[in-house]
Amino acid sequence: MSKDDKKNSPSKSHGRLSIAASVKPRELMTALPRLANAFAVKVVTLFPEAFPGLLGESLMGKALKDGLWSLETIDLRPFGEGKHRNVDNTPAGGGAGMVLRADIVGKALEQAAAGTPKDARAWPVIYLSPRGKPLTQAMAAEFSEAEGMTLLCGRFEGVDERVIEHFNIQEVSIGDFVLTGGEIAAQALIDCTVRLIPRVLGNQNSIEDESFSNGLLEHPQYTRPTTWHHRDIPEILLSGHHAKIADWQQAQAERLTKERRPDLWRAYCEKHGRDTDEDQEL
Fold it and tell me: Could you tell me where the beta strands, DSSP code E, fall in 135-269?
């Protein structure tokens, strides 16, 4: 190999693709169309290769390919300092673990903010955190009305508090448990938000009967075969009497909610002027 060949060849490669640090955001599925006013998602993460993950499959993946929404990752590592692109440091005041630095994360968020509205309602910036406000269907519906959103995925012991304050970041939790990082939580939030965008699921009417959409858990679902392991589909569902089927489904939804989610049941009864201890004829 000549000196010129060595000069022009990548030092590390997978086939013909060179690997190099870059602060330029990576827009996934870049060869695909993006429709005007399509919902846009930006993710700041140490693991951009984790995306789109399952978001690239099934109906969500098809919607991504069709340009109904877009996904862009911003790799946090290139913003790091030193030979090893360090992005964290020890906690002030002592303690175990490491904390993502404010100056490093801030640069990545500034990059993500380029070209986005400053109004948090039009473009929320969200940090996935177990101490955040619990994610709900209503919250996802509110996010889906925005132009897009930026998600910050934490790692280690979390993010310097000053970043959260400076960028007026909303903290959102997907449950009372701790993950090793925010990427899985970010994908969950993206999924439950983007699926509410018109045309993503194809049949928008299916959303109206889902759990939490009307304050109740969803009623049981059945399909053929009519009998399986000596268990039959409830006769009412095969009757063709749509009004009675609707009543049965409502009663089942109320029963399940009362049994499994007393908190939702109390809120539903308060909203509809119902007695939480009433017994429904099922």
Answer: 148-152, 170-173, 227-228, 231-232
45: part of which helix (H) or strand (E)? strand 39-45
Instruction: Tell me the pLDDT tens digit for each residue of 55-69.
Output: 999 999 999 999 999
**Residue type for 187, please?**
Q
Average pLDDT, the chain: 89
Which residues lie below 8 Å from residue 199, measured CB to CB, with a gap of 6+? Answer: 63, 68
Q: Give the domain 17-194 fold.
A: Alpha/beta knot (3.40.1280)
Beta-bridge partner residues of 152: 44, 127
Report d(CA 223, CA 226) in Å as an integer.
7
Give this prediction's pTM.
0.83
The CB density around residue 40, as the number of other CB atoms within 10 Å, is 19
CATH class of 212-272: mainly alpha
Domain ranges of the chain: 17-194, 212-272
